[in-house]
């Protein structure tokens, strides 16, 4: 990790018992204020319907004292990101998001600007997946083929958002989340995976990583050990 | 679909209340006997540990009166498939399976031999995913990057194996299966998707498709309508 990176990586926008982003309100406000940011560019590429999705996020975040604009409303997304101070990359489908970021030549640009400390990054769900080393541990369906699974690499490991401990349904024979992550860990290219439960936030501040939020996380290290953080 | 194709596409090998493959025993036996097949080549590429995986399947199917061999035990997989009468492509990780099939130059060979009626195909879970148009509707984690999501295309549509109707966990905010399939249906390249519940089997016999097994299926058509088959 680069020493100037600033990122807030949310497992999800929604958490049981909270309205949208409510569990993360204090962290998001503190993060943006600390970095002296008032304007926030929202990247809605993980979903269809950019206008509606941006409006939903704007309706939540603007009342907190910030001003949200959709990246799709700028004439040139590359120029917009070159001068942005902060972005929020929303959730949806990780494959669609990563492909659209590549199509718009934004992957390496975002990496460079975040690593140099010029761009503060907030991601949620798919927006968190693409902030990591690769999208190998997304839960999403591969609805479109991206040019690579390599992602923005703000952190040099993988995150599994919406991490859930228990079998989803004991009668259902599909793999559990731990089995799926275990399959990844067996790959030669696999490294560490952080399973972020819904309601959890990873705060990246230079080389410091702080787990925040209300739900904890599970760290999967190579040679598959598991470490609980409550 | 080609008029000579013969395939049996299982949602999964395991089904609640049955031992491994038990729910499909009669169909598999009838299918192989009808096509006068005694030797069955098992393709274990969706999992690590080919020997152990092949042994597990052999221990189930050999007592039914057939002889199972792992494709990995042949010197040349291409030559083995060129002379095989029937294959069973087992479940595990769909991305790993498809990549390994491409690495071994087997995708188009299997397609040609199945379409010409020379090779009978049995697939389960990931082995069913790769038998379809593409792997866009797998549930698996993208643990490795395949050269394409295009698959063997024995059928010209997609299947979602392990299809499950209900939200996996009402407190969990990850997408439901229907939402995930709905995201795919919004893609310009998406067509029909058959959600095969665990315990269901799609029997392909030339241009005829017959739903068999114990659990039914859901058909998702473009412009997202849903049709129930009980």
TrEMBL record, chains A, B:
PANTHER family given in the database record: ALPHA-ASPARTYL DIPEPTIDASE (PTHR20842:SF0), PROTEASE S51 ALPHA-ASPARTYL DIPEPTIDASE (PTHR20842)
Family assignment from sequence similarity: Belongs to the peptidase S51 family.
Predominant subcellular localization, coarse grouping: cytoplasm
Keyword Nucleus among record annotations: no
Residue stretches in coiled coil: none
Catalytic activity: Dipeptidase E catalyzes the hydrolysis of dipeptides Asp-|-Xaa. It does not act on peptides with N-terminal Glu, Asn or Gln, nor does it cleave isoaspartyl peptides
Lineage top rank: taxon: Eukaryota
EC number: 3.4.13.21
GO BP annotations, alphabetical order: proteolysis
GO cellular component: cytoplasm
Name of protein: dipeptidase E
Naturally occurring in which organism (per UniProt): Danaus plexippus plexippus
Key words, A-Z: Cytoplasm, Dipeptidase, Hydrolase, Protease, Serine protease
Oxidoreductase listed as a keyword: no
The protein's role, per its UniProt record: Hydrolyzes dipeptides containing N-terminal aspartate residues.
Record-level Gene Ontology MF annotations: dipeptidase activity; serine-type peptidase activity
Localization per record: Cytoplasm
UniProt enzyme class: hydrolase
């Amino acid at each position: 990790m680069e020493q100037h990176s600033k990122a807030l990586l949310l497992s999800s926008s929604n958490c049981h018992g909270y309205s949208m982003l409510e569990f993360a309100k204090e962290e998001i406000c503190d993060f943006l204020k600390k970095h002296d940011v008032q304007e926030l560019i929202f990247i809605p590429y993980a979903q269809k319907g950019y206008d509606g999705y941006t409006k939903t996020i704007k309706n939540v975040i603007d009342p907190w004292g910030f001003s949200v604009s959709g990246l799709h409303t700028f004439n040139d997304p590359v120029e917009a990101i070159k001068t942005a101070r902060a972005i929020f990359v929303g959730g949806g489908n990780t494959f669609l998001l990563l492909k659209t970021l590549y199509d718009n030549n934004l992957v390496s640009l975002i990496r460079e600007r975040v690593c140099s400390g010029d761009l503060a990054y907030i991601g949620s769900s798919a927006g968190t997946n693409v902030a990591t080393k690769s999208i190998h541990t997304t839960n999403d369906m591969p609805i479109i083929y991206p040019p690579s699974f390599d992602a923005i690499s703000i952190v040099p490991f993988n995150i599994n958002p919406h991490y859930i401990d228990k079998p989803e349904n004991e009668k259902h024979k599909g793999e559990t989340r731990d089995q799926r992550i275990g399959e990844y860990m067996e790959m030669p290219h696999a490294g560490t995976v952080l399973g972020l439960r819904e309601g959890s936030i990873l705060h990246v501040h230079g080389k410091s990583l702080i787990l925040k939020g209300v739900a904890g996380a599970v760290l999967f290290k190579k040679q598959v050990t598991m470490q609980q953080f409550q």
